[in-house]
Amino acid sequence: MTVLWYLLAAGAEIAGCFAFWAWLRLDRSPLWLIPGMVCLALFAWVLTRVEADAAGRAYAAYGGVYIACSLVWLWLVEHRAPDRWDLIGAAVCLVGAAIILFGPRGG
């Protein structure tokens, strides 16, 4: 379930941030900010659903998922294919996220 929550959080955060990007960088209507802010609030709520013993650890592990999902957004929404360096970087980040999230913790 943790992976699903992370994927949902990433989708909401990226969509919310893109709404601001569209408004400021793509000259879209300020009305884009309304769904953008809703998405960012949804992102914050969804991230609290992650099973983790500390918020900072949940956020750190989320970073790797966010990076990978951002490259999917780049490909599907912005129609720009990630290059091999993007993919290698995302793989490294996902390995790091898995270590943070699933690594054994000493008492």
Question: How would you describe this protein?
Answer:
With 107 residues, the chain is mainly alpha-helical. It is built from four helices and no strands. It has helices at residues 2-25, 33-47, 55-76, 84-102. Helix 1 (2-25) runs antiparallel to helix 2 (33-47), helix 1 crosses helix 3 (55-76) and helix 3 (55-76) packs antiparallel against helix 4 (84-102). The chain starts with a helix and ends in a 5-residue tail after the last helix. 21% of the residues are buried. The model has no long low-confidence stretch (mean pLDDT 94).
Work out the helix count.
4
Helix content: over 70%
Q: Using the alpha-carbon principal axes, give the shape.
A: flat
Calculate the mean pLDDT score and round it. Answer: 94
Between the first and last Cα atoms, what is the distance in angstroms? 25 Å
| Strand residue percentage | under 5%
Compute the gyration radius: what is it?
A: 15 Å
Give the structural class.
mainly alpha
Query: How would a textbook summarize the main sheet?
Result: none
SSE topology string: HHHH
Number of strands: 0
Which parts are unreliable, with pLDDT below 50 for 5 consecutive residues or more?
Answer: none
